[in-house]
Structure formats: C-alpha cells, structure tokens
C-alpha cells in the first residue's frame, strides 16, 4: 500500500508505494480502516511522540470506511462499510496511508453532511477545543446545562483549534465570546459566533481589557497562539480564572506582574475520545458547527501540503486525499 513516511533521520518525508499493510493479527483489538482523507497539523513533524514507530507516518486525523472489526472481541459498535472518523493515538503510526488501524474508543461515526475532506479536518482541532473548554476550563458542554456569567477569549481564532473554540463556546452559550485574529479573518470569526473580534494587528488585548476591566476581563482564555499572545492573556483574566493553552505550557509565559490572584495556567495534550467526537458530530449534523478546510492535496503533493501547514496563516486544516 502507499504511505507517506518519515525516513532517514525521521525528518525526511517520502511517499512509499510498498509500505507494509497492518493486519488483524498484528492489531487484534483494533479496526482495520481504509482512510479516504487525513489531516495534518502545524508543527507535527517536530513532535516527539509520532517518532515511536520504526517508520513513522504523519496525519493523526482521518476519515474512512471500516474494512474489518477487532478479532479480540465479539461485540462491536461499528461494522464493515461504516463511515467513521477519529483522532488516533500519538504513539502509533498516523493515517496518511491506504490502510490504518484504530481502537473503538477513538472512533465516531462520520457526520453525514460533511465531505471526506471536511470530516478529516475535524477530530484533533475540535477535540482540542472541546477538552480545553469543557474538561480543563470547567465550562458546561452544549446541551448539558448552563454556564452562567462566563466570559471567554479564544486567541488565534481563525486557526484549526481556534475555529472550534469559537464555535463550541458559542454553542455553550457563554455570556460573551471574544476572538482574536488577523485583519482578513475578522468577519469570518464573527460568522462562527464570536460576539467581539479583535484584530491583533491593530488592537492590544491587554489595553482593550484594561479600558473596562469590570466588563471585559475573562473567566477562561483558550490560547491557540502561544508566545507574547499567551503572556498577554494572563493579564486579561479575572481572579481565579483560567488560562488554557494548546500552543505551549502557560506557566512559562506568566508575567512577573499584572496577573490577578488565583489565576490558573493549564497545559494539556489532546486525547482521542470517540464519545466527545460523537457530541461534535451531532452539532455538525444539526448545522450548529461547521468544518473548515484550508486546502486539499494528494499524497504526492506532500511537500506543498506541509509547506502550507507550516506557513502559519491557514484558515482551518490542511488535508490529504488518501484513497
């Protein structure tokens, strides 16, 4: 089978036309799946975890059709031919290959109203936002209760995770939702549900908050940018609020002064979770959330795909057509 692999020092990408196929005997507790599309993430070629396999394969997001069910169990949630999508574990091979494997706990049914490419763009980004806001941020997920008077900031709101941070926080009916992005994406982020969108090129978030601290300070920040943006976020949070980052550990960016008492910094690595992905599928099928694909490439175009992803100005995810 064809597979995109990291060869040599594991930093060199090649398209292998004869990569070994995974088998049920090797993975008795997994489904064998034929990916139709797989998404990549900015920076993933620098992550240490995907280097665990002897021949790593990128692309931890996928959507596809089940070939066979696990042989180690007699009952299964999914059957051959079912269309599913998932974020798979960081320590396995990724899914930019013509046959892949996945545990049942990672899988969810593909949203019926999305294309293959759109569905592939969802899992990692949406789960990162979901877990950041609702697992670590203490907010109540959509349809499961009320969030009271909560103000939320999402930075880099037009990027892969930010898009989902805005949509999920909007569906959770927080009191006010603010996003930051570049000039060309302001109207786009508003269309996702943000009540206020700040152009980071023209507005300093700290100055904006301090002009009216009582009404503008945040209870929860979901940072998707890191760097100076993350450092500034600390100064924008109310007492006992939370700064949650998917970009880098927030404690290392905590300023020496200007941070209110009890503000907590939270760093986490997204975990595969099929049940949470099913919640996201429902929101997509209800028309409450939408997938955003920046660009689509064939596997043969892997150099251009990764150049696009690493450029830092994508709107949504970069996706491979696999089969």
Automatic annotation (TrEMBL):
- Tell me which SMART domains the record gives: PKS_ER
Write out the GO cellular component annotations. Answer: mitochondrion
Give all residue intervals belonging to the Enoyl reductase (ER) domain. 8-320
Compositional bias segments (type: Polar residues)? 11-23
Q: Which domain of life is it from?
A: Eukaryota
Q: Which InterPro entries match?
A: ER, GroES-like_sf, NAD(P)-bd_dom_sf, YIM1/Zinc_Alcohol_DH_Fams
Q: Which GO terms describe its molecular function?
A: oxidoreductase activity
Note down the stretches annotated as region Disordered: 1-28
User: What protein name does the entry list?
Assistant: NAD(P)-binding protein
Q: Which organism is it from?
A: Periconia macrospinosa
């Amino acid at each position: 089978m064809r597979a995109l692999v990291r060869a040599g020092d594991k930093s060199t990408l090649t398209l292998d036309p004869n990569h070994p196929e995974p088998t049920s005997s090797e993975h008795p507790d997994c489904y064998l799946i034929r990916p139709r599309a797989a998404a990549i993430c900015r920076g993933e070629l620098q992550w240490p975890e995907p280097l665990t396999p002897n021949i790593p394969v990128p692309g931890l997001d996928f959507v596809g059709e089940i070939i066979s069910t696990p042989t180690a169990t007699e009952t299964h949630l999914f059957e051959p031919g079912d269309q599913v999508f998932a974020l798979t574990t960081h320590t396995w091979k990724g899914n930019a290959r013509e046959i892949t494997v996945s545990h049942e706990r990672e899988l969810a049914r593909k949203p019926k109203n999305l294309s293959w490419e759109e569905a592939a763009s969802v899992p990692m980004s949406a789960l990162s936002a979901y877990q950041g806001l609702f697992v670590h941020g203490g907010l109540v997920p959509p349809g499961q209760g009320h969030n009271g008077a909560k103000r939320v900031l999402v930075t880099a709101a037009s990027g892969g995770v930010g898009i989902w941070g805005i949509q999920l926080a909007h569906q959770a009916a927080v009191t006010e939702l603010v996003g930051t992005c570049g000039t060309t994406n302001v109207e786009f982020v508003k269309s996702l549900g943000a009540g206020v969108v700040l152009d980071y090129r023209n507005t300093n978030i700290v100055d904006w908050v301090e002009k009216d601290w009582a009404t503008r300070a945040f209870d929860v920040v979901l940072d998707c940018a890191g760097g100076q943006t993350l450092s500034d976020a600390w100064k924008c949070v109310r007492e006992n609020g939370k700064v949650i980052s998917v970009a880098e550990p927030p404690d290392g960016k905590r300023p020496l002064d200007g941070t209110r008492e009890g503000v907590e910094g939270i760093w986490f690595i997204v975990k595969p979770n099929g049940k949470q992905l099913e919640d996201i599928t429902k929101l997509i099928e209800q028309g409450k959330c939408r997938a955003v694909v920046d660009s689509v490439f064939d596997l043969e175009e892997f150099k251009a795909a990764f150049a696009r992803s690493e450029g830092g100005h994508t709107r949504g995810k970069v996706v491979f057509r696999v089969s």
